Amino acid sequence: MALFELAQPQWLAAHINEPGVVVIDTRPAAEYWAGHIPGARHLDPALFALTQTDAAALARLHAVLAWSLSAIGLSAADQVVVAGAGNEVNAARVAWALAYAGQEHIRLLDGGVAAWAGTREQAAPAVRASAYVVRPQAAYLATAQEVLEATRSGAARIVDARSQEEYAGQRSNAGRKGRVPGARFWDTAQELAADGRYAPAAQVARAAQAIAGADERAIVYCGGGGRAARTFVALQLAGHTATAVYPASWNEWGTAEHYPVETA
């Protein structure tokens, strides 16, 4: 299982040159090339967005993970620091993907690149490609089939990280309106403090008591997996280590007529 931690900019400044510390920049490529944290390697979060969770889709995800993580020279032993523009969904999606791939130590730069006060560079770092071996961690990814089974058995708590309007069936990003039957609403605003940093873990843990026990399996979904990934990160930081992401989320569930939808 992965260890999730926050890295403050001061910590990164003190450790950035240590062997095995790898910064991954998840901002759009144009922003990365305009100036990034020294040594940071770029990774496109869109690579890990899914619209299906069948066997073929997961096989493609595994191939993309192996190719992309090898291309940036990553090894399983590296201490990764994921840096987005801020504490937004792109950095969280990459952090989730790394955990699913089997990376064991993942830090998120709290406040993202915007919080970094050090120098920036425009040149890409010289890295040697690795042969990254993906070790899929099934505990971190839920398929549509698992979500369907959970609606029948109650084996996992289903958590909806979309807006209140989407949860209530007033609007939808894809297909039908409504929610997964039995899903509990989670207000993603609870994940961040007023300054945009991650909220204190104890505060998130208290709020999360309304959706799942700390040891209960919770499956988080949203519209397309991004918001769910940030909720996943926030809950992992708060000690809810049995949390998983349904990465295809409403893009899959809302467009497939054979999956039940609740609107009342």
Automatic annotation (TrEMBL):
PROSITE patterns per UniProt: RHODANESE_1, RHODANESE_3
Keywords of the record: Repeat
Protein name stated in the entry: Rhodanese domain-containing protein
GO molecular function list: thiosulfate-cyanide sulfurtransferase activity
Record carries keyword Glycoprotein: no
Source organism of the structure: Bordetella genomosp. 12
Coiled coil: none
Signal sequence interval, chain numbering: none
Keyword Cell division: no
Any matching Pfam family: Rhodanese
Domain of life, per lineage: Bacteria
Occurrences of domain Rhodanese (ranges): 17-125, 152-262
